[in-house]
Amino acid sequence: MEGSQLAADDWWRSAVIYQVYVRSFADGDGDGTGDLTGVRSRLPYLAELGIDALWFTPWYLSPMADGGYDVADYRAVDPAFGNLAEAEKLIAEAREAGIRTIVDIVPNHVSDQHVWFRAALAAGPGSPERELFHFRPGRGPHGELPPNDWESEFGGVPWTRVEDGEWYLHLFATEQPDLNWAHPAVRQEHEDVLRFWFERGVAGVRIDSAALVAKDPDLPDLEGHQGPHPYVDRDELHDIYRSWRAIADEFGGIFVGEVWLPDAERFARYLRPDELHTAFNFTFLSCPWDAGLLRRAIDDTLAEHAPVGAPATWVLCNHDITRTVTRYGREDTGFAFTAKAFGVPSDLELGTRRARAAALLSLALPGSVYLYQGEELGLPEADVPLDRIQDPMYFRSQGRAPGRDGCRTPLPWATGEPFAGFGSTVEPWLPLPADWPARAADLQERDPGSMLSLYREALRQRHSLTALHTEPLRWLSEEPGLLVFARGEHLVCAVNLAEHPAQLPAHTEVLLTSGPLDADGRLPRDTAVWLAV
């Protein structure tokens, strides 16, 4: 369903982009792992859903030490997912269905099986091959201590010692050595990779850990360090992304950056007209289900983007984040990696009601929306058995943190088929919960009250409501517990987070609600509505 917004050069400013975690989306060859054949088979479903683009987490050749974010070859598709020809078919077939493709690039690191790193290990200390990474001698009398006091993003020491005594830096897993972005060969290689995928028809690139790429060449200790952070948000990054933007502009492509920064002014620098097009909005994603905090998150987000003229992005969940239905059903409805724990109770009925309201809220805000696979089915976080967990976050925490596998469980497609229609003839790579068949897409598409039906109708209306693509947000109420705003003169979104039902604003028509209105027409708690006025 290719509409005017999708066809326009600035389609990305108000697009709804669906995130595909290939391994868990659909299994086309029955081996237990999702693949590109499986995605191609579900393109009619995605077109019916009404999305504008697909963002694929890495499908490249990888040992899968970190779910594909440990890339061994950016120009090859991992055999578990298919091959390059299959990827090219998927890009082309999706475009024929009116759906653009965004691929994932991981510039901070590669796999320890990448040809560059294997050559660096073989070449030894002081070699040109090691200059592509961050190899250093250790500290202590015998070099037995790490070169500095940094901590891994996954917890623990971000240094590993090799047989010849040197250490290499990895801000993430041991199997993900960090690249040295001060080396011109690293920059050239990534620019070539960008061209490779743009030439194959992708519309954009998502940049993983975009603010962590550049490092202080001295790799100083954090304790007592003065001046710019040695590896977060360094000024050198902007020259890198300006060179990337020139490549994207050649192909009419776009970038979206994963940029976690608390400083609004520093964040906005990445979105200047000659750098990235958009960046993920983690303020909104991690915000608790609280009207005051959500309004502040919305206002802060719009204020951050206004000086550089970039559109905001809105996202409730992704492949790293506890699923919305589960998170919103907990006592603490915010999100932080440090707070993830086993055994946290959740009221899934409450969480579902709030997730439905949050869907209408996010889809009514100005900017683009990212929808993680399975959110349109209202899937909760899966409780993965301990002996099936694969996420390195779990292992690096010595089993304290549950990791991210609970939001990566394979999707249920058909209630009466083995493994809920995921497509496998063998046990999938992660087990599906026992109640997954009751949440299957084939059941939900026949139920007008399902989460899937809500998303389909919301996206259908979003495509047709011009105000949602062109008009700014204007708040209409200061009443505690309520979020009420207009988009233009004739469209209002109201969300009730207060204890009691609320009167609807004056209107001519109720366009869509996340749940039934009260008998007297009032808006119940944890319910959202779109109104024509």
Automatic annotation (TrEMBL):
Recorded superkingdom: Bacteria
Gene3D superfamilies membership: Glycosidases, Oligo-1,6-glucosidase, Domain 2
GO MF term (any one): alpha-amylase activity
Any matching Pfam family: Alpha-amylase
GO biological process per UniProt: oligosaccharide catabolic process
Domain Glycosyl hydrolase family 13 catalytic, first and last residues per copy: 19-404
Keyword terms of this UniProt record: Hydrolase
Family under the similarity heading: Belongs to the glycosyl hydrolase 13 family.
Protein name listed in UniProt: Glycoside hydrolase family 13 protein
